[in-house]
Amino acid sequence: MPLLRRARAVAVSAVLLVSGSQVASAAVSAQAEQSSTPIAACTQPGPVLRYLVVFDEGTSQPLAEAEITASCGTPLVYYPQIGVAVATSPDPSFGRRMGPDRAYSAQAEAISKHTGAVVRKKVDETEMGKASRTGAVDRTVEQWDMDLIRAAEAHAVNNGSRDVVVGVLDSGIDPNHPDLVGALDPGLSAGCATGKADTSVAAWSPTTSAHGTHVAGTIAAADDGRGTTGVAPGVRIASVKVVDDDGYIYPEYAVCGFMWSAVHGMTITNNSYFIDPWVFTCQNQVGQKVVYEAVRRAVEYASGRGVLTVAAAGNGATDLSKPGRDSQSPTNAEEVRPRALDNTCLVLPAQLRSVVAVSSVGADKVKAGYSSYGLGAVDLTAPGGDRKQVPEGKTDGCVLSTVPAGYDYSCGTSMATPHVSGVAALLASVHPEATAPELSRMLNVQSETLPCPADYDLNGTGAQDAYCTGYSEYNGFYGHGLVDALTAVTK
Asked: What pLDDT band is residue 468 in, cutting at 50, 70 and 90?
């Protein structure tokens, strides 16, 4: 059902200033004639906030920009393919003028209602240790995760094609890391931390977070006898920065990232995050439904352009088959826990249709305690690490990968997800004609079956820490199973 537009009074001269389009001015003037209650003139008390705006699909750019301007906003970027815009406005009535069912500001949610101060930096859910510097030492012996999915054996057959590009939608990739310089494609990289793509190196390079560089190394670190090696060292990667310096991934950042990846012909996107400011975005809640619709459209557009979206299930140890609303203000998203059940609430982007959602296992192939799960919500699993499951002969149960100027161990579904993206990249290398849905099906088929554990008492208390439902070939902990790089290139 198309989104309804609210009639509003606008000045024709304001419309003409934006587009110069007689079609746009006539259409918006017609809306003005339908309104019986004029809205007051624009005010500028500040602060200038950024808004995500959803239009009826098929809305032209001149008309969309004219309506934004007439509502006291400034168009920043419009994605006509999906009818979604990003706009800014210092006028607090902008959202009301556009309509709360069509416009939403994640920035506004991130400002304290009581003090007006921006909320503190978001806490990264992944667990990282102390980084070590780069050097000539071969550290692949520490990569138990690659052993678990038989990556080295796969490389003897196929280590990936340069025609395959994985977009790393994350916090940026170190452009100077020796393990990544050969794989990173600067020409396909962009920063999206305003909702509009910026191709400058500064815009897509890491600033406050090592997360994106770690993810990138798991996908495509060079197989050169030094440092670590990725799942698909022969493919290319692009840094698509969707995390701001405070650690937030607002919906306009993600929409920009998906659209950039689709327009620039990427094969896969890796999404090791959930979209802020909520863990669960509810389709029936004001504001949240704007986010849901905009992100859904962007992901579906990318899928239609042949991009496979792979995303983390999350680190909340939550049963995603029983979704709930966030229990606290979204301004403290790192502290949110689910409350009342609501089947309209989903983790974005992981629970969208056509997205491959990934849970995490430790070295013993058992679901990590932190990993979210759920029958019908998880498609595959991969090694994300667990410090309680340290492999024999190893020093750390987390995943070793690249970080800016060095290496570090980290645990999380964020670390599991790039293993799946890497295996998908190998599949795409072997099957260059495969569509995104076909790659998704191939991932399911090549996976190693992991049945539900007979006992999931992680703390030895006598009580189950989570309940795995389903059957051996498909269940809530592991989906279709553990990805297998060797099978991906040989079957």
From this structure: very high
- Residue 237 CA to residue 266 CA, distance in Å, equals 9
At 47, the amino acid letter reads: P
Q: What is the dihedral of CA 60, 62, 68, 69, to 10 degrees?
A: -170
Concatenated DSSP letters of 9-56:
---HHHHHHHH--HHHHHHHHHHHHH-SSPPPPP---S--EEEEEE--
> What is the H or E stretch that residue 490 is in?
helix 485-490
Tokens of 137: 């030492």
Question: E strand or H helix at 486, and its extent?
Answer: helix 485-490
Q: What is the pLDDT of residue 133?
A: 78
Residues pairing with 138 in the sheet: 227
| DSSP helix/strand/coil, 417 | helix
Of 329 and 144, the structure prediction assigns the larger pLDDT to: 144
Q: Could you tell me the pLDDT band of residue 128, with boundaries at 50, 70 and 90?
A: low
Q: What pTM was computed for the model?
A: 0.88
Instruction: List, as one string, the DSSP characters of 291-347.
Output: HHHHHHHHHHHHHHTTPEEEEE--SS--BTTS-EEESS-GGGGGG--EEEE-TTEE-
Strand partners, 474: 471
pLDDT of 126 over the 80 cut: no
Task: Give the range among 17-21, 120-124, 225-229, 351-355 with minimum mean pLDDT.
Answer: 17-21
Number of helices (H), then strands (E), belonging to the chain: the values are 14, 21
H-type alpha helices, 305-455: 413-430, 436-446
Alpha helices for 38-150 (secondary structure H): 61-70, 94-98, 106-109, 144-148
Q: What is the separation of C-alpha 142 from the centre of its chain, rounded to a whole number of angstroms?
A: 28
- Total residue length of the chain: 491
Q: How remote is the C-alpha of 28 from its chain's centroid?
A: 35
Helical packing angle, 22-34 and 12-19, nearest 10°: 150
What single DSSP character describes residue 401? Answer: E
Task: Taking the CA atoms of 134, 173, 216 and 347 in sequence, report the sign of the dihedral they define.
Answer: positive
Name the residues annotated as catalytic.
170, 211, 414
φ, ψ of residue 76 to 5 degrees: the values are -100, -45
3-state secondary structure 220-288: HCCCCCCECCCCCCCCEEEEEECCCCCCCCCHHHHHHHHHHHHHCCCCEEEECCCCCCCCCEECCCCCH
- Please say whether the beta carbons of 280 and 325 come within 8 A: yes
Query: What pLDDT is recorded for position 19?
Result: 34
Report CA-CA distances (Å) from 147 to 61, 153, 364, 373. 50, 9, 12, 24
Q: Per the structure block, which two tokens stand in for 346?
A: 């989903």
| Res. 21: pLDDT tops 70 | no
Type and span of the H or E element at 153:
helix 151-155
Domains, the chain: 12-104 (no CATH), 127-456+463-490 (3.40.50.200)
